Structure formats: structure tokens, C-alpha cells
Give the backbone structure.
Amino acid sequence: MRPLAAIVDLSAIAHNYAIAKRCAPGRQAFAVVKANAYGHGVREVVTALYDSADGFAVACLEEAAEVRAMHGEARILLLEGCFEASECAIAAQLELDLVVQSAAQAEVLIASELCRPLNVWLKLDSGMHRLGFESAELRLWHARLQDAGQVAELNLISHFACADERGHALTELQVERFLDLLDLDFNQRSLANSAAVLTIPAAHMDWLRPGIMLYGATPFADLSAHDLGLEPAMTLAAQVIAIREVADGESVGYGAAWVAQRPSRIATVSCGYADGYPRHAPSGTPVWVDGQRAPLAGRVSMDMLAVDVTDLPHVQVGSAVELWGANLPVDEVANACGTIGYELLSKVTARVPRRYVG
Ligand SMILES: Cc1ncc(COP(=O)(O)O)c(C=O)c1O
């Protein structure tokens, strides 16, 4: 069997969810499990949070149906709303909480015949300019939907663009725009992603929406997951499958992009870009090999990558390798690759078996 697996610690996810709740006593929290729970496996994550989570948030109806099949009771929030008119009726059958982020979605909703009224979350575009109504338009839709037969609760939701950059002026403006609407009668309010859960109490409202923090990665550039008390959930674990001695001046890998500056020992590792390790990871990106860090050497191949273990003479074929995880924060690897932990975690491909512990 190929020595590569994503080992997912479900107790870490439960621990991290509890941290989110502890940041905002008395508030409820949708665990954001879209994109296969950021790559961790939605079935297992929902099962792990079955008793503790107040609800789950997903990106689309297909994801919502998967969560509903596992959990008959939980609130499930459809973050982008319906993409087609026919989806409203299905959302009602699945008893979803439905975001309405455009006039087109609102028109479809009030024209729909539903088996039961839905909890509707009117989305405010408070400054992200991706989805949602401007304030004035949201007021009009609030008036129209307030007494609509399709609507059970009428709620307010918005999303931050820069909450991960502490003290960003746009965040303050977004909170202000949200608060300005609270003269309207809403049953529930939701604004906080992980960054706001962790650092902006004024944004906590009634329902939190933590995503990345559940998986033990940080949304911040300047605060590590460890600083925040988060436990990493995924360890991408591989092995050394070959070792070679490379003479000074010899190159390693495709494009001969890495050239030995001294007689070197190169370990070939059982993970590549078809597994989700970023192909653009530069030489020098840290890799955890047999208990220590070593630098990536040369271009990442489809199924393998190379590490310079010249300074780690104990490394041999079969030595354990961690691409990220318990010993090497995914955020550090992401930073070396010019991306964010979110991308690395959610892009671990289907061919990597997930093994669950905890
Ligand atoms: C609308 C919405 N809410 C909450 C989240 C969770 O954000 P985070 O993973 O930064 O906590 C996301 C994720 O992108 C989102 O799109």
C-alpha cells in the first residue's frame, strides 16, 4: 500500500469547536463544513460534532443534503442560497436555513410553493462586494419578506473581507453597516467567521460561523494556531521511499531546478501534487522528516517530492514524513508556498485515504 494518508484527529475538531463556543458564551455556532469539511471528510466531521454543534454551514444544496442525511435535527445553513428556482422546494424539504443574497433569489422564494416555511437569512453586502444586498435594498426585502408565507424566521447575515488582518478599517465599517440595520426586526443575526470569533467580540451576534479554526489552522498571519489554543486536525503523513547520494553540482528532479551545492543526501517522499501538495512549493519549504525539519529540494512531481536530508544522517527508507500536521503547522507550509492553510487542506485529493483518530 502506498505510504500516504491524511490522518484526521476528530477530537481536535471537537476541541476547536469548543474553543469557538467558549469565545462567545451563550451564542450558537454553525460549524462550517463546506468543501468536504475543508478536506477533512464531511461525514466524519459531522459525526464528531453530532452532539455538540448547534448547526452546520455548507455552500450548496448537494452538501446540505449530505449533512441532512446524517443529522435529522441540526440547523443547516445554505451559505450561497439557491442556484436554481427548483432548489427552494428541496431546501424546504430538507428543512434548511436559507441565505437569500440577491433580488433574484428573493423573487424565486416568494414565488415558491414550499412544504414548510424556511428560516431565511437576508445577506447584507457590508463591504466584501461578493454576495448580498446593499443596505437600502435589504430594508425593502425585509419589508416584503416579513409576512411572506415562505418565511419562518427572518434573519440577518454578512461576511467579513479582512477580519484576518487585525485592525483593518474595512472590518470596522462592515460591523457598523451591520449594526445600522438592527433597528429592523430580525430573529437571528450572524457575522463572525473564525477570525472574528477569535478577536472581535462586537461581531459575535447570535450565531458564529467558524470554519478554518475548527480544523486547527489560523486565519491570521501574525497569530499561530498554537497561540490561539487550536489543535491541528489533519496530518498529511508519508514516508521516505528512496534515498540517494548526489554529488556536488548534480541536479534533482524535473527541470533540474535544484542543484547540489555540496555532496548531498536526497530523500524521495511518497506525496506529490496529484495528492494536493502544491506544485508551486519552492525549494526550502519545510518538510518534517523523522522528527526534524528538512528543506524541499526541487520541483514537486505528480506522486513524489524530494527533500534534502544531508544534515539528517539517520533518515532512511521507511522514515516517517509529515508534509504538515501535528509537528509542522499547515500555516507555515502555506506561507512558504504563498498561499493559506485553507487552500492546502481543502485541496488534499480524493486519492489520499483519510484515517480517523480521536
Ligand atoms: C459566508 C461564510 N461564512 C463563514 C465562513 C468560514 O470562514 P473561516 O473559515 O474563515 O472561519 C466562510 C468561509 O469561507 C464563508 O464563506
Remarks:
- The two ends are 23 Å apart (CA to CA).
- The chain has two domains: 10-215, 234-357.
